[in-house]
Amino acid sequence: QFELEKIRSSKKTRTNNSANGQVEIIDDNSPDSQRDSIFSVLKSIASRHTQALQQLAWLQLQSKKDWISYVDLLNQCRLKCVVTQDTQLRNYL
Predict the structure, then answer these.
(1) Is the overall model pTM greater than 0.70, yes or no?
(2) Maximum separation of any 2 CA atoms in the chain, in Å
């Protein structure tokens, strides 16, 4: 967990040389950049994977707990016809 926090807290920047010769510093830890990265990943995975992640997000938003049990996620995905078997969900995650 310490390494994860260390990675999150480190500021990642890169430069972008535009056509007009200006140099732009891009903060890869900015909320906009992180959001764009998340959407890029979601676009690249299969729709069933996305549906499983959406169910996880929905459960997290509805829960008062800090975590969601795998069984709860599996049952929710089965209810929404995202998966029929445990192995399908495990492969998606």
Answers:
(1) no
(2) 55
Q: How far is CA 66 from CA 10, 59, 85, in A?
A: 25, 11, 25
DSSP labels, 16-72: EE-TTS-EEEEETTSHHHHHHHHHHHHHHS-HHHHHHHHHHHHHHHH-SSSS--HHH
Specify whether the CB–CB gap between 92 and 50 falls below 8 A: no
Return the amino acid letter for 83.
V
> What per-residue confidence (pLDDT) applies to 40?
78
* Contact assessment for residue 37 and residue 23, using Cβ atoms and an 8 Å cutoff: no
Residues sharing a CB contact under 8 Å with residue 29, sequence separation 6 or more, in sequence order: 8, 10, 11, 12
For residues 43-70, give the mean pLDDT.
88
| Tokens 């959406």 belong to residue | 54
